[in-house]
Fold this protein.
Amino acid sequence: MSASTRPLAPEKESHESDRQRRTSFDVWEAMAPGWERWRAQLARALTPVREWLVAELAPQPGQTVLEIGAGAGDTGFAAAAILGEQGRLISSDFSPAMVEVARRRGIELGLTNVDHRVIDAERIELETDSVDGVVSQSSYMLMADPALALAETRRVLQPGGRLALSVWGAPEDNPWASIGGRLLVERGHLAPPEAGAPGIFAMASEDRTRRLLEGAGFTDIRTENVPVRFAYRNDDDYMRWVVEVAGPLATVIRGLPDDEQRALKDLLANEFGSFEADEGYSVPGMALTAVAS
């Protein structure tokens, strides 16, 4: 077994997971203002995923639903509208800044049945069997230990309760993210992703996602691919979007000198030529969704 594939010793693995958690926390705290600025655009692009998740979660009036990794909160808020005044949505994120973004959006919508909480999905501070459903859009793949997070999710769910989640599918089906990442690797600004490390494509494999769910104790699992499209007015619009919302990629690009950012934008424009539409670019994406109980 080569050094690159040799498993880490338990203490080293723990230290690496702690480092990944700290890095992720810093990244998403920094991304929160951008997510608030781009919330409407993100909500439009992700409408098919949000609708799938809420339909498969099938919340009922009066129930309690936990949203993990809520970001700006739109998916959970769609469920909250069904839960009614006797129900409760716990809208959570491990980034306090993101929780405040969702809180402001909830106030804007006039929602009164939502609790906003900072929650680490790997250490959920809720009682066992305390929620009727859990929903999570694009979050488990970013966690240092998704197996632990899913086990915690199973713990807080009541028997028979459902988890509806989405992650991003294969890189080739998500050029809106994979092209920029590939260019950064090719230009030496980003290391190639390590197998199993947190990242946008960490759970792109349906087999891996199923194994993680089964390992957490879920038995009734169904997956589906849900297509989306991201719209950008022009190259500048895309670059602003990436720098303000794209997590680890944004952090790398923000640190590049101006001339390298311009070079990267020119390369992206060339790559995006096949996605030109009447009013800019229309770039496809594919979410891998799952419902489990």
